[in-house]
Each structure stands twice: as C-alpha cells, then as structure tokens.
C-alpha cells in the first residue's frame, strides 16, 4: 500500500479514535482530574494517582479503562499518521538537514507511541490495584518523554511546512 493511502487511513482512524477518547474523558474530569486521563498520567506520585482514582465512581473507572484500552489503537494510528506525515513532507523538502533527519524524526514518533503503550500498561495496573510508587513513576516518566517526543515531531512538521511554503514562493 502506498504511503499516501496509509497516511489518509491513519488520519481518519486517528480522528475517530481521538473523538471516542474525548467522549470517555468527559466522564473522568473533576476538581482533582481537570484534564481527564492526561491529569492521571502526569500525577507523578502514588498519592496523587490514588486520589484521582478514588475521585472516580465505578462508572468513571470503567470509562478510564475503556480510554486506556482504546488508546492502544490510538497510539498505532497517531504514531502512523505523524510518522507518515514526516516522511511524506520530507519528499517535498529541498536537500538538507530537514530532509536527512526525517527518518530519525519518524523513529522518534514511533518511540513515543511505544512509550504510550508502556504508559497505558502502568495506568491500567494503577487503576486495577497495583498501587506502587514505581508504577506511578513509570506512568509519569513515560508520559513526559512521550509528549516531549511528539512535540519534537510536531516542531519538525511545522518547520518543514514553513520551508515548503518559502520554497514554493521562490
């Protein structure tokens, strides 16, 4: 299958799954968890994680589990979408650092998706009773590195788009 076809398929599924995750996330938000599952991922301490879990009723805990489960599909789709975006953009860029670094940036995005999987594992373990600081730390550090790597990918795409715009104007 062509990269462009995979790009469009991954974009559609990324948007669909993102919509589902946002729908689940509405049930998780409260004063202790203002940003839903993302707040939980950045809790850092076991005490904070447990306070968030305990702030959810039984229904909210089901939505948290559903969100974490569907996130395994989401990490495949957004990882594919962002990595393919980088690789496809690079084909249009002039020779230089950005073009040469596209493969590395795409790999960074894949690493972010893998960290997301580990983060989900830790979050599910916390949610289902493995209440240890090491599990809370695993979730926090995986989430922190994941988001940093995704930001690198997005910055690459933004810079690449700017370069592409200036290239086409000249």
Tell me, briefly, the overall form. Answer: elongated
Count of folded domains: 1
Helix content: over 70%
Structural classification:
mainly alpha
Oligomeric nature of the chains: single chain
β-sheet strand percentage: under 5%
H and E order: HHHHHH
Rg, alpha carbons: 18 Å
Give me the number of helical elements. Answer: 6
Q: Unreliable runs, pLDDT <50, ≥5 residues?
A: none
The overall average pLDDT, rounded, is 96
Can you put this structure into words, describing what you see?
This protein is elongated. The model has no long low-confidence stretch (mean pLDDT 96). The chain has one domain. The chain is mainly alpha-helical and 170 residues long. It contains six helices and no strands.
Topology of this structure?
Elements: H1 3-25, H2 37-41, H3 46-55, H4 58-92, H5 97-127, H6 133-169
Helix pairs in contact: 1-4, 4-5, 4-6, 5-6
Give the structure's gist in a few sentences:
The protein is 83% helix and 0% strand. With 170 residues, the chain is mainly α. It has one domain.
Give short descriptive properties of this protein.
170 residues, mainly alpha, 6 helices
């Amino acid at each position: 299958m062509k990269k462009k076809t995979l790009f469009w398929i991954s974009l559609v599924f990324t948007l669909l799954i993102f919509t589902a995750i946002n729908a689940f996330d509405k049930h998780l938000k409260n004063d202790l968890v203002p940003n839903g599952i993302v707040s939980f991922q950045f809790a850092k301490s076991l005490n904070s994680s447990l306070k968030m879990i305990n702030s959810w009723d039984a229904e909210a805990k089901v939505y948290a589990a559903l969100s974490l489960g569907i996130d395994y599909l989401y990490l495949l789709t957004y990882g594919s979408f962002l990595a393919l975006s980088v690789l496809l953009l690079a084909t249009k860029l002039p020779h230089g650092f950005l073009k040469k670094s596209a493969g590395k940036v795409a790999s960074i995005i894949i690493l972010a998706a893998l960290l997301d999987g580990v983060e989900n594992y830790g979050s599910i373990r916390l949610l289902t009773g493995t209440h240890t600081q090491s599990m809370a730390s695993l979730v926090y550090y995986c989430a922190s590195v994941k988001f940093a790597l995704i930001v690198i990918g997005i910055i690459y795409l933004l810079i690449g788009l700017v370069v592409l715009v200036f290239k086409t104007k000249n």
